[in-house]
Amino acid sequence: MSDPILTLQGVYTDIAQYHILQGVDLQVPRGEVTMLLGRNGVGKTTTLRTIMGHWRAKAGKVMFDGRDIAALPTPAIARMGVGFVPENMGIFSDLTVEENMVLAAVSGPIDAGRLDWIFAAFPPLKTFWKSHAGNLSGGQKQMLSIARAMVEERQLYLIDEPTKGLAPAIISTMARALRELKQQGASILLVEQNFSVAKALGDSCVVMDDGRVSWSGAMAELAASAELQERLMGLSMEAHQ
């Protein structure tokens, strides 16, 4: 792999007395969608939060675009061009959709063309622009969460289970928006439990188990092998859609 945008080398992260990440090594190719897969509780969310600086790595390197960001605060990482969509959405329910978006635009006023693209990807956000985010449906809140990360062009997006609990029509909307984001040249590291989404979007894949990377390779290779899926994750993609 030449010139990955993100590389983790021997990353260890502890949370309280628990040793969550135990030597994570992974790479995210530039301009591709990398799926981060594995059973619940193996360290996927901790990996994203460690990259973003929410949790501090005890050891190892987190190299973003050639620079070790492991010791940087979260705002500095965001300003370098990393967008983050947490599993809990991270929106401000008491603020309007517009106010949520304005707060996410750390570099200044929202670009009009960028906003038009977001409205085309997620039409409900335009409809409820002046409404409080707490009044949105679950799917609309997830749209807002992703849109907040997209409000400025980022080099890398870290996205944690964006389709969890959503209806199929909204999942299709999410997948289409992420595909368009990739077409714009962005790199994406995506945690996803919906294997049909992973298969459709993923270029490469990293599978975690017990705080370490147990396998990495092409998403197509994993998708094509039920035996590999069973060995790495204890289930097959076809049986778990």
Overview of this protein structure:
The protein is α/β, with parallel strands linked by helices. The protein has a domain of about 140 residues: Rossmann fold (3-Layer(aba) Sandwich). The chain is about 35% helix and about 25% strand. It is built from 10 helices and 10 strands. The strands form 2 sheets. It has a 6-stranded mixed beta sheet with strand order 6-7-8-3-9-10, with helices on both faces. A 4-stranded antiparallel beta sheet has the order 2-1-4-5, covered by helices on one side. β1 and β2 form a beta hairpin. α3 packs parallel to α6. It is globular and about 45 Å long. The model has no long low-confidence stretch (mean pLDDT about 95). Belongs to the ABC transporter superfamily. InterPro entries: AAA+_ATPase, ABC_transporter-like_ATP-bd, ABC_transporter-like_CS, BCAA_Transport_ATP-bd_LivF, P-loop_NTPase. GO terms for molecular function: ATP binding; ATP hydrolysis activity; branched-chain amino acid transmembrane transporter activity.
What does this entry show, briefly?
The protein has 241 residues and is an alpha/beta fold.
Q: Spans of 5+ residues with little confidence (pLDDT < 50)?
A: none
Number of strands: 10
Number of helices: 10
What would you say the CATH architecture of the domain at 1-81 and 156-166 and 189-241 is?
A: 3-Layer(aba) Sandwich
